[in-house]
Write a structure and sequence with these properties.
Length: 376
């Protein structure tokens, strides 16, 4: 056995299966560290750490290629591209390590260092956002789940590591005035896509892939068969405006002999892939200030639905969320709603103070009434 002290903690190092194992015991006592080393060797012998002669644990670099190939075959192009981009970053931190050498402590270290990196973008230099780090962590988590499904004895080091909280100001909710100007400037098919999102809360990709057979005008629903969870694969109710819009779109799809309501302009047998350029142009022409993404139309729907007293379980089902906690992230009171709510609060307090003073005077009790501006 070989144990040594690094700082206040004892570490052990030994050879096993042709590999050098060097890890912290987590103990400050030498005897406890030696016991930890012995247990680690026993675990390896019992195959609890993933060392088998028939299926040796791969290195991060090699397995990431297998993962990306699987993602290319199973996921949408957008998801595959995101995984590929994240793996470029993850390789800088975890490259050279075997999968079972990556620990939760290393993941925490990645979070901290990555969050404080400066992202160079043209002349703009800014820190990497928490959302960007979260995306990389989701890719890393998916990689380890894939490794488990392939029969490798590894533990997912991302499980239990908290994600960075999503900043509320990154989720935009547009006003009705902004909506009117934006839709007036939006070209087709963006105008119809945006209208569906504002009235159903569907994700952009879900709208892009609506097919004729998944639109039920009798039940007034749109069935979305895609998604990672059962909740995402759902029937979404239509408003009268969306129903009329889709009837027009379905007729056009039948004329083009395509099943897609929003076919690609390059190949009618494929769904449209993006409307980013049209969205940016419409946002610019309508003079919408601040960062405004197409996805924010989904946030806008969720916020308005909550303001209209739609129950959170119902809203979660319409949005395709598996939990109400997820839905709560998408519900943000707009500035006007908060102003009106504060007016109601002020009026309530004003009436309460006046009522209390009147009751006290009726009993002949001297009172000092605090002047509160009454809100009409």
């Amino acid at each position: 056995m070989a144990v040594y002290r690094r700082g206040k903690t004892w570490w052990y190092v030994f050879e096993f299966g042709g590999r050098r194992i060097q890890e912290s015991s987590g103990f400050r006592n030498k005897t406890a560290a030696m016991r930890a080393e012995a247990k680690r060797k026993t675990d390896l012998m019992e195959r609890r750490a993933g060392f088998t002669k028939s299926k040796p644990i791969p290195k991060f670099d090699d397995f990431s290629k297998l993962f990306l190939e699987s993602s290319r075959q199973q996921h949408r192009p957008k998801t595959y591209s995101l995984h590929a981009w994240n793996i470029k970053t993850l390789k800088r931190f975890f490259g050279g390590n075997y999968l079972d050498e990556i620990t939760a402590e290393m993941v925490e270290g990645f979070k901290s260092r990555r969050k404080h990196e400066v992202r160079q973008k043209a002349k703009d230099a800014r820190l990497v956002t928490g959302t960007t780090v979260n995306w990389a962590l989701e890719t890393l988590k998916a990689m380890f789940y894939h490794a488990e499904r392939m029969g490798y004895f590894v533990r997912n080091p991302v499980v239990g590591v908290p994600m960075f909280r999503q900043p509320l100001d990154s989720m935009r909710v547009i006003t009705f005035e902004e909506q009117r100007g934006y839709l007036a400037e939006a070209s087709q098919p963006l105008r119809d896509i945006a209208g569906i999102m504002l009235d159903t809360g569907m994700r952009p990709e879900e709208v892009f892939r609506i097919t004729v057979e998944n639109v039920d005008f009798k039940q007034k629903t749109i069935f979305n068969p895609f998604g990672k969870t059962n909740a995402a694969r759902r029937a979404i109710p239509m408003t009268d405006e969306v129903s009329a819009l889709l009837k027009r779109r379905v007729k056009e799809a039948e004329r083009l002999l395509t099943t897609f309501v929003f076919p690609s302009p390059h190949d009618a047998q494929k769904p449209i892939g993006s409307v980013k350029k049209a969205h940016r142009a419409a946002a610019t022409r309508s003079s919408i200030k601040g960062h405004f993404r197409l996805y924010d139309l989904r946030h806008t729907f969720a916020t308005r639905a909550a303001a209209a007293d739609m129950s959170l379980p119902t809203l979660a089902a319409i949005l395709g969320h598996s939990s109400i906690q997820m839905t709560m992230r998408y519900v943000h009171p707009a500035a006007e709603e908060k102003r009106l709510a504060m007016q109601k609060f002020e009026k309530f307090c004003s009436e309460g103070v006046i009522s209390a003073a009147a009751a006290a005077q009726s009993h002949g009790v001297p009172t000092i009434v605090t002047t509160v501006a009454r809100v009409n």
